[in-house]
Design goal:
Layout: E1 16-17, E2 31-32, E3 39-44, H1 50-58, E4 66-67, E5 71-72, E6 87-88, H2 91-99, E7 103-111, E8 114-121, E9 133-137, H3 139-149, E10 154-160, H4 163-175, H5 181-194, H6 197-202, E11 208-210, H7 214-231
Length: about 230
C-alpha cells in the first residue's frame, strides 16, 4: 500500500500560506515562495507502541522532524518529564487557555480517576514554514488537526498491533509503575470503538503500519516520510 502525499495548500500561483491555516481570524496567513512542511501524525490504540515509534523518529537526524509537546491535565506517569512528554497543567489553566482561544483541539476522557483532558495549544510550537513536524494522538485529535491545518498538511500514520499482543504489552507497562488495571481495561475497550474500521474508513485512513516488530515498523514509516518529501 502506497501512501499518497501532497504538500500544503496554496494559491493559483503556487505560493503557500504560512503560520495558521487560511481563514484564521487571529493570525492571517502571508504569502511566501517556498513549500510548506507537513505534520506526520502517529495514532493508534493504547499500547500499540506510538510513543516508542515517536521517540525513534524524532531522534533520527536524517529525518529532521520537529516535535510538538501537548498539554494534559492527567498526572505524570513514572518516567515522564513535564515539558518533554506533556505540559502537565491544571484544569483551571486549561480553561484559561480555552478562554483565550488558544486551543487547537482537545478531548476529555472520563477515567476511573476522574476526567483527564489532552489538548494541542496554539503556543507557537507549530510553524509549517519551518519544516516538518511529528505528533502523536488519537483519531479524534487527528481529524481536528486536519480541519485546522488542512488535509494537505496532515499525513496519518496509523499504527496497529494484534489485540492479544497489545493487551500483554499494556499489562507489562502497568507493572513497571503503580498498576492501574481498571483504567488500562477501560482504555482497551474504548479503543475498539474509537478506532473502529468504520471510523478509520470515514477518516480516509487506508494505510496501516503493523508494529509487531518495532524496527520494521519504523523502517516502513521512514519510507513514507521520505516518499512524501520526494513527491514534493
Amino acid at each position: 500500500m502506497i501512501t499518497k502525499c501532497r504538500h500544503g495548500s496554496g494559491d493559483e500561483n503556487g505560493k503557500f500560506l504560512t503560520g495558521r491555516p487560511a481563514g484564521s481570524a487571529q493570525i492571517p496567513g502571508r504569502l511566501v515562495d517556498y513549500k510548506m512542511g507537513k505534520i506526520f501524525y502517529i495514532m493508534g490504540k493504547s499500547a500499540s507502541g506510538k510513543d516508542s515509534i515517536y521517540k525513534e523518529l524524532i531522534g533520527d537526524p536524517s529525518l529532521g522532524l520537529r516535535g510538538v509537546v501537548m498539554y494534559s491535565t492527567r498526572p505524570m506517569r513514572a518516567g515522564e518529564t513535564d515539558g518533554k512528554d506533556y505540559f502537565f497543567i491544571s484544569p483551571e489553566r486549561l480553561a484559561e487557555l480555552d478562554a483565550e482561544g488558544r486551543i487547537i483541539e482537545k478531548r476529555t476522557y472520563d477515567t476511573v480517576f476522574g476526567p483527564w483532558t489532552y489538548a494541542t495549544v496554539d503556543d507557537g510550537q507549530i510553524d509549517l514554514s519551518l519544516g516538518d513536524y511529528l505528533m502523536v494522538g488519537v483519531l479524534e485529535s487527528y481529524l481536528r488537526m486536519r480541519d485546522y491545518y488542512g488535509a494537505d498538511a496532515l499525513v496519518p500514520l496509523y499504527v496497529e498491533v494484534e489485540d492479544g499482543e497489545r493487551l500483554m504489552r499494556a499489562i507489562r507497562r502497568e507493572m513497571n509503575g503503580v498498576p492501574k488495571y481498571a483504567e488500562m481495561c477501560r482504555r482497551f475497550l474504548t479503543d475498539s470503538e474509537d478506532f473502529s474500521d468504520e471510523k478509520l474508513a470515514a477518516a480516509g485512513i487506508v494505510r496501516r503500519y503493523d508494529n509487531l516488530e518495532l524496527k520494521a515498523c519504523i523502517s516502513e514509516i521512514r519510507e513514507t516520510i521520505f516518499r512524501c518529501r520526494a513527491e514534493g
